[in-house]
Specification:
Layout: H1 6-18, E1 24-26, H2 36-45, E2 49-53, E3 75-78, H3 83-97
Parallel strand pairs: 1-2, 2-3
Helix pairs in contact: 1-2
Length: about 100
């Protein structure tokens, strides 16, 4: 899914939850650094989240150094270009295969 609209991204996060997705891989673009609403949606659905960025935001402008998405993510893949999406999928699959602790 791709959208340039914050509300559409949030709707897709909710849809992932209701359709019982195994996790979310997200490159929120500029919303990474500005969208508390997107962060809240990611936290609310309790799905594993992997953040992806084609470049490394920490090596870019100062305002890009804060990621609200990272606050909801289990991890981030940055600076690997489009290969980062494959790596994010591998991470989600590895998490799914890990046994969960019994209560």
């Amino acid at each position: 899914f791709q959208s340039n609209h914050e509300g559409a991204l949030i709707d897709e996060v909710h849809r992932a939850y209701f359709e019982k997705a195994d996790g979310i891989i997200i490159n929120a673009g500029g919303y990474t650094h500005t969208s508390i609403a997107l962060m809240d949606a990611l936290l609310a659905v309790s799905l594993p989240v992997i953040e992806v960025h084609l470049t490394d935001p920490s090596r870019r402008e100062e305002f890009r150094h804060r990621s609200y998405v990272a606050m909801a993510a289990m991890g981030s893949v940055v600076g690997l270009g489009f290969t980062g999406y494959r790596r994010a999928m591998e991470l989600l699959l590895a998490m799914k295969k890990q046994p969960t602790a019994e209560p």
